[in-house]
Amino acid sequence: MSDITAADAAVRAELVIDGRRLSYLDFGGTGRPLVALHGHLSEGATFGHLARALGPEWRLIAPDQRGQGESDSAADYSRDGYLADLRALLDHLGLGRVVLLGHSLGAVNAYQFAARHPERVHALVDAEGPVVLGLDGRNPLGFLLDLPCLAPTRDALVAGLGPVAPYFSDRLRENADGTWRLPFRPQEMYESEEQVHGDHWDDWTASACPALLVHGTRGIIPPEQVRAMVERRPGTVSVELDADHFVHAGAPEVFAAAVREFLATV
To answer: Residue range 90-119: average pLDDT?
Structure first.
């Protein structure tokens, strides 16, 4: 789900928040700033194709959110924690108002940040980020609890991952001591998923900036919720793509085209 080639062309940098490293990719350029937030089990490199498609009019900046990719683990994965990281990144880069784009977890982070800091957000792109999730008590990341996060060799780690290995094998990391690890800690991501669950209608409807809701035909947002998200939040438009939950990775060309068309209006 990452675009390694495009990510290699970006500049990787970091800031330190309370002794914890937050890493990010800056795809550069002099265009208007767009900050892209990935979902669980992903990282900033997943937006490499989008960065190419939107440049040079847009400068895309994609952090590895706390506990994922090259960013350090955090003491907690609360809603406030994620939003504080985003604010710290914008301040670090000297960015006033930006367009926020997010996928899944990142989309919830984006619209919650807009609700709390409307003066910092010019527009929103929500890719497969529901406003109501997890109220049935089920955690879709429960499978993570059976995965190893560390192994003596890469082959051993891949073997331990079993059937989910293809989803992560291109993003495994080698430690300084030669051991290999996942780009996240399974227990932490499980806990993060737990804490993003809830009814977030108040946050979704609290901001007034233009918004694009991108959902897949096989995505996780029920059709009735999509309709309500558009109807209950003025300035929101939606587009449906023939894709699953990972709309930006499964249909990169049409996703980029939809985002580009929306951005031309703001």
So the answer is: 98
Q: pLDDT grade, residue 197 (50/70/90)?
A: very high
Note the pTM of the prediction, 2 decimals.
0.95
pLDDT higher than 80, residue 221: yes
Query: Residue 204 — very low, low, confident or very high, per pLDDT cuts 50/70/90?
Result: very high
Alpha carbon distance 22, 32 (integer Å): 22
Classify 4-136+186-263 by CATH class: alpha beta
Break the chain into its structural domains and give their ranges. 4-136+186-263
